[in-house]
Amino acid sequence: MLSFCFSLLAATLVPVAAAVAAGPAACSNITTQLGSSKVVASPLNLKYIDSIEYWNTLQDAYQPSCVVYPASAQDVSVALQAIRAADSRFAIKAGGHNPNTFYSSVDAGVLLDLSSMTAKSYDADTTLATYEPGGVFGDVYEYFVQYNRTVVGARLAGVGTGLALGGGMSYLSPQYGMACDSFRELEIVLPDGQIVTASKDSNPDLFFASRGGGGNAYGVVTKYTVQSRPAGEFYAGNIIYTFPQKDSVIEAIGNFIQYNTDPKAAIIGTYEKLPTPDLNLNLDEAIIMFLVYDGPDPGTAFDNFTSIPYLLNTCSIKTYPEVVDMPIPMATELSRGANMFRVGVHRPGNNSYETALNKWRAWAEDNKGKYLLLSLDFQPVPKSLTDASKAQGGNAMQMPDGPWFWLNYLITTPVGMSEPDYNAVQQSYRDMVADTGNAEGLPLFINDANYDQNPLQTFSTFAKLQEIKKKYDPDNFFADKTGGWSFA
Ligand SMILES: Cc1cc2nc3c(=O)[nH]c(=O)nc-3n(C[C@H](O)[C@H](O)[C@H](O)COP(=O)(O)OP(=O)(O)OC[C@H]3O[C@@H](n4cnc5c(N)ncnc54)[C@H](O)[C@@H]3O)c2cc1C
Ligand SMILES: *[C@@H]1O[C@H](CO)[C@@H](O)[C@H](O)[C@H]1NC(C)=O
Ligand SMILES: *[C@@H]1O[C@H](CO)[C@@H](O)[C@H](O)[C@H]1NC(C)=O
Ligand SMILES: *[C@@H]1O[C@H](CO)[C@@H](O)[C@H](O)[C@H]1NC(C)=O
Ligand SMILES: *[C@@H]1O[C@H](CO)[C@@H](O)[C@H](O)[C@H]1NC(C)=O
After folding, report:
1. Is residue 148 within 6 Å of ligand 3 at its C-beta?
2. List of residues 6+ apart from 335 with CB closer than 8 A
3. Ligand 4 centroid vs 307 CA: distance in angstroms?
């Protein structure tokens, strides 16, 4: 009896022990090959502590066996092969803003933190720009200011370059398409460690999938070569309204989505619900518009917003780095918390704006106390954006003609919420979003999606992406050993 118990115990313990040992084994092999300056294994080390900070602070709880700081594609290749040899789990981290569990975090495995890879360049003859995956878009933009150029990337300075692999919505997107549409060549370390180039001429299928088909799926991108764009003066700012204006503002957003034809004008409309008491004065609610015009004179593009009585209007002439610091510098850092995203996609018409807003608002009222912050963001996808995407070959979403819009649903839960309470509130929020429904035939935006929304399945190109995934990750190394979007 005793020996039976013992062997049962051994049988259950052995695989666990092996899995735990895989991380340290990979780490020691990587240390041997890359040297100890590129690997940190102590959770007390400040670099390590910095590396396990995520925008969704629930990810901070996971402890990698070590953090590896590759300096080149070659280093990434060595690390991936060592991880594979040890059968360890791993994660690839750029800016660490994806809120989904294990998308860029890992427990007892190897964290590949790309933060040391920050080289950039600009070629005035071709107007092509290059950047490596480390750092955040704010750093990338600052660098190209000296050339009066920029690249299509995040709308907030603090977001990392993984954004571009999920498509990447920028204030410049109505003119130039998604961030990934400006890709011209990528350097990619494949799951087997091979270093390849992906472009329209070289591995075109891999290039196709990497333009918006998601990060950590087909390999590790170690260098982006993109078409740069001019960046001069912008007329931009935030307008803040109180909630009694909610219907006027939603109508203005709806009109903008449907009728604005000036591709230099971009907006985000955000409705915010705070945990403060309601007191029938709507002090717990605010509406913040982000208005950005590429050029000093927006003409009439924003008149529908400025004609509604507002609390505050910060619109003024700004540089591009100032534009991505709206509404305040460090916005991404300051909004760290137990954050989760969901996404919806809709066409204008059928009161789709009001329907989504009213459902969300009713949920917010019913669930007071269960969140620190909720926001609902309206993100237009105009025809000019989808045209610009097509003109550059089209991305992995093969975006149907605009106008349509994505909704980003954010929920920040209180710190220390019990697991059952956390799960219940997430499920309830999920049900509310699901109940709002989505337009047929439009892709869910990867960058705003919750893992359970399986956005790839909504792409018309899903079967093609599955083929490409199978070709470049044939033994499911990435699929099995790191988090990411489901191809099943
Ligand atoms: C405050 C905030 C603002 C945002 N604003 C925008 C916006 O304006 N536009 C927009 O489109 N999205 C926006 N997003 C969404 C954002 O694009 C996604 O969260 C994106 O995943 C963040 O990329 P990251 O590099 O910061 O995060 P990470 O979590 O480090 O990376 C995201 C995913 O990509 C993978 N990955 C990253 N780099 C590589 C690489 N080089 N090779 C292979 N895989 C890689 C990671 O493994 C991870 O799964 C915002 C998010 C936040 C939190
Ligand atoms: C160490 O990693 C290399 C690849 O980087 C691999 O070829 C080798 O087999 C690994 N050694 C062990 C003991 O896993
Ligand atoms: C950038 O623009 C400014 C203002 O128009 C100009 O003075 C400067 O010469 C430009 N720099 C380059 C490198 O083109
Ligand atoms: C402003 O709203 C009106 C309808 O009230 C619409 O006709 C017009 O196109 C809108 N303009 C913009 C730029 O959204
Ligand atoms: C509006 O709803 C009807 C019925 O549900 C649907 O057939 C139609 O396609 C919708 N129109 C838009 C623009 O979504």
Report:
1. yes
2. 55, 412
3. 11
Name 310's Cβ contacts closer than 8 Å, sequence gap at least 6.
Answer: 239, 240, 241, 245
The residue behind tokens 């605009």 is 402
Question: Domain of 266: which CATH number?
Answer: 3.40.462.20
In a domain, 8, yes or no: no
The per-residue pLDDT for range 10-36, each reduced to its tens digit, is 444 444 445 559 999 999 999 999 999
The amino acid that residue 93 corresponds to is K
CA-146 nearest atom, ligand 3? 13
In a domain, 69, yes or no: yes
Q: Is 78 in the pocket of ligand 2 (CB under 6 A)?
A: yes
99 closest CA partner among 267, 416, 421, 332 = 332
Q: What is the pLDDT of residues 201-219, one digit of tens each?
A: 999 999 999 999 999 999 9
3-class secondary structure, 150: strand
| Statement to judge: residues 210 and 278 lie in one domain | no
Q: What's the rounded Cα separation, in Å, for the pair 219 and 468?
A: 11
pTM: 0.95
* Residue 153 beta carbon below 6 angstroms from any ligand 1 atom: no
CA distance 83 to 94: 18
**Residue of the nearest CA to atom 10 in ligand 4?**
255
- Any ligand 3 atom below 6 A from CB of 147: yes
